[in-house]
Amino acid sequence: MRATIPCPECGRALEVPSGAKPGENIACPTCAGVSLRLSRQGEEWRGALVRRASCAAGEEEIILPDGVQPGDIIECHGVKQRVTYEYGAWALERA
Fold first, then answer.
1. What CA–CA distance (Å, rounded) separates 90 from 65?
2. What is the DSSP annotation of 14-68?
3. Which residues, 6 or more positions from 87, have their beta carbon under 8 angstroms from its beta carbon?
4. Can you give the residue ranges of every domain in the chain?
5. What pTM, to 2 d.p., does this model score?
6. What is the C-alpha to C-alpha distance for residues 64 and 74, in angstroms, rounded to an integer?
7. Cβ–Cβ under 8 Å, residues 79 and 57
8. Would the pLDDT of 47 be above 90?
């Protein structure tokens, strides 16, 4: 039997790919933009929501650091940007 983890957004059981390693990301095929970072606790797989936002200085989506909170300042493309969270979405705005 293959290991699965639940998507925190829709509850769908996501299959952990064979050969997966802790730290890798898997995407939910049902939820737009939702992916999980894999970790293991003993023999059990876990998934933590990966926070993403569009860079305010560039045109790509970036993965936000673990533990980031609204109001934090991060630097991307040499520009300081404030992390925001509104209406269920993470974003960056020039600080």
1. 12
2. EEPPTT--TT-EEE-SSSTT-EEEEEEETTEEEEEEPPEEE-SSSSSEEEPPTT-
3. none
4. 4-49, 52-94
5. 0.70
6. 9
7. yes
8. yes
